[in-house]
Amino acid sequence: MHHQFIRNKKAFTLVEMSIVLVITGLIVAGIVAGQSLVKQANLRRIITDFDKYTVALNSFDLEYDAIPGDMANASSYWSACADEANNPCNGNGDRDLDLDSGTREIVRYWQHLYLAGLVHSNYDGSIVPEAYDPGRNLPKGNLTNSGYFVNHDLKRNVVVMEYSRMPGCNNAWNFGTLSGKDTYSIDNKVDDGIPASGKVAPINATTAAGNCTQLTSCYASGEYIFTDDNSFSCRFRYFLRM
Questions:
Q1: Span 60-89, pLDDT tens digits
Q2: How far is it, in rounded angstroms, from Cα 74 to Cα 7?
Q3: Is 95 left (phi over 0), alpha (psi -120 to 50) or beta?
Q4: Measured between alpha carbons, how far is 190 from 146 in angstroms, rounded to an integer?
Q5: 48: buried, middle or exposed (CB in 10 Å: 19+, 13-18, 0-12)?
Q6: What's the CA gap between 47 and 54, in Å, rounded?
Q7: What three-state secondary structure class fits 4?
């Protein structure tokens, strides 16, 4: 009887262990699936944001016959748009987004859109205390320290928006935000899935503060690199107009 009790006790322990292993496996599978869902939701939000900002730019241009930030008479429309040192409210009206020691049209861009009622966040247009402050004077991304930075592509002569992180080299916006695989996912959904063509242009990222050398690669030889699934090897530009 004593030996039978011991055998039964051991058998019961093995059953318990089996149940624990099954439950553990389900939990791990659920976590992995949850992480995948979160990642896909983040990618969808980026795509939605670019669509939204494309509509905002086109609507502004149709209404005011100007590019936000570059609009030469913005202060005539909105008294809340006040000048500050090296950052006037009005742009020069040349349909280019300037960035130099005396103007920050790429920062005023977001304030003009807000004052026109085309974006909901109250971007203040100020470069004080920081020139680029995601969440205050430009849109904040869904990754830590990430943001949407607008610029002008001289080669294509179009407004371009970049999704990247700060602070990068020289306190610029050149930290990576996504892996090559995730950037490809976005490119493939909204464009042609090819790095060197179309509306999405990936940039190999700088990943160390103060280092201006591209340290990681998310694409090479005209193809995205898929082996960096969880890295921040890529930042990318989205051409709002082609």
A1: 999 999 999 999 999 999 999 999 999 999
A2: 86
A3: left
A4: 21
A5: exposed
A6: 11
A7: helix
Query: What is the SS3 assignment for 91?
Result: coil
Ordered alpha helix ranges (H), 148-212: 180-190
C-alpha to C-alpha distance for 145 and 132, rounded to whole angstroms: 11
- E strand or H helix at 148, and its extent? strand 146-153
> Measuring CA to CA, which residue among 106, 110, 109 is closest to residue 121?
110
CA–CA distance, 200 with 75 (Å, rounded to integer) = 34
The number of residues making up the chain comes to 242
Residue-wise pLDDT for 14-48, tens only, equals 666 677 776 776 666 566 556 667 778 889 999 99
Which helix (H) or strand (E) covers residue 29, if one does? helix 2-64
Question: Which amino acid, one-letter code, is at 66?
Answer: A
